[in-house]
Specification:
Helix content: 25-40%
Strand content: 15-25%
Strand order of the largest sheet: 1-17-9-16-13-10
Distance between the termini: 46 Å
Shape: globular
Radius of gyration: 24 Å
Length: 386
């Protein structure tokens, strides 16, 4: 799910509350306990992709007792509306829980209400990407990510998307902006990759071909700078005059040509914090008003056919990744790849392949998590004997 900031806290250091503390919550009852259950259920539904600790939920909904919240969460888990992860105690809503929450009356006025049954917005239809695949919108602010990104563009509020590779950052931007141009950042990206360069032409000679930044500025299009923090800071500086009040760039290689941005021009950037060499400088960070954390949509992974035990293993591995206990965890991209391999080679090969694509220093962690949740001994995919 997309959230303006990373989830507070970390998986450790959140001991389970005493189950007898506070007033037990009931999903079916009336009065204060039922009110608390609704608040807990609706909060989990609004953070469907996250595995939340009891203390985090208690603070977020302003409940007076973590014990009462813990009781409500256990009732949700018993009803199949939430998954319960232990050591420490953490909870995540299931699809059944999301459906049930949609039928609950709101616990308080909610900004996500759209006036339909239960005060919950209906999910918009998937949005096609240029490659023909569909992007499934996710909640953001008062609406959905695709429409909110478009609204931020009209207000000229630049956005930096950050999160692990494979969580859908690029897919979201492609779905939001059909007029998108992209610069894929690497350590070898140079200024010419943005502004343009001289290219040879048939018959001899050279002509200057303007780069994607210039094209986006002149045509009022969106430019995505993917993996922006892999690009050397001195190269990224070419963006800054285009993003501030000047809205211009100068092309030294083409006679100091000046380019003025027209209406519609907009810059979005992507940042993978855990990737080696990625450096988010203060100069770059300050240019983006919104920093949007993008995590894997676990509910979507289940809907698209990823087995629940595999999703559960991925959730645990991502929690370990956040806690610094491992160096890699599968995201939506790898999980969808798992489904393709399973459909072609079978479940055992798909599990082995998911373990095999993990970096060598994380492979033991991945195989252990997959084995624990699937009950199947797993090794990396390899050819068998003749």
């Amino acid at each position: 799910m997309t959230t303006p900031h990373p989830p507070a806290g970390s998986p450790q250091n959140d001991p389970a509350p005493a189950s007898g503390a506070g007033t037990p919550a009931s999903g079916a009852g009336s009065g204060r306990s039922g009110y608390l259950y609704r608040k807990v259920a609706l909060h989990l539904a609004d953070h469907a992709d996250q595995v939340l600790k009891v203390g985090e939920i208690t603070r977020a909904i302003g409940a007076p007792s973590s014990g009462a919240v813990f009781e409500a969460l256990k009732k949700m888990a018993a009803a199949g509306h939430a998954t319960h992860h232990r050591d420490p105690h953490r909870f995540q809503i299931t699809q059944a829980g999301i459906d049930a929450a949609g039928a609950l009356p709101p616990a308080a006025p909610r900004t996500r209400s759209s006036g339909n049954a239960g005060g919950r917005q209906s999910r918009p239809a998937p949005v096609p990407r240029p490659n023909g695949t569909l992007y499934h919108p996710r909640r953001l602010g008062r609406g959905w990510d695709v429409e909110e990104l478009r609204r931020l563009r009209t207000q000229q509020v630049p956005v930096l998307l950050y999160g692990p590779p494979g969580t859908g950052k690029t897919a979201m931007v492609e779905a939001a902006f059909p007029d998108l141009l992209t610069v894929a950042g690497t350590g070898d990206t140079v200024v010419d990759d943005f502004l343009g360069s001289y290219n040879p032409v048939p018959g001899g000679g050279y002509e200057f071909v303007h780069g994607p930044l210039v094209t986006a500025m002149r045509q009022g299009r969106v430019l995505l700078v993917d993996d922006a923090t892999l690009i050397p800071p001195r190269v990224l500086a070419v963006l800054y005059p285009a993003m501030d009040g000047r809205g211009t760039v100068t092309i030294p290689a083409h006679g100091n040509e000046t380019v003025q941005a027209v209406d519609g021009f907009y810059i979005v950037a992507g940042h993978n914090p855990g990737v080696h060499g990625a450096v988010l400088t203060e100069a770059l960070a300050s240019r983006f008003t919104v920093h949007l954390h993008v995590t894997t949509d676990w509910d979507l992974a289940r809907q698209l056919g990823v087995p629940k035990p595999v999703v559960a293993a991925a959730i645990d591995l991502n929690a370990d990744l956040a806690a610094g206990k491992t160096v890699w965890a599968p995201q939506l991209r790898e999980l969808l790849g798992f489904v393709k391999v399973r459909d072609q080679l079978g479940m055992s090969a798909a599990l082995a392949n998911l373990a095999g694509i993990a970096p060598q220093d994380a492979r033991d962690d991945v195989t252990a998590a997959l084995s624990r949740h699937t009950g199947t001994p797993i090794t990396a995919l390899a050819l068998g004997k003749r």
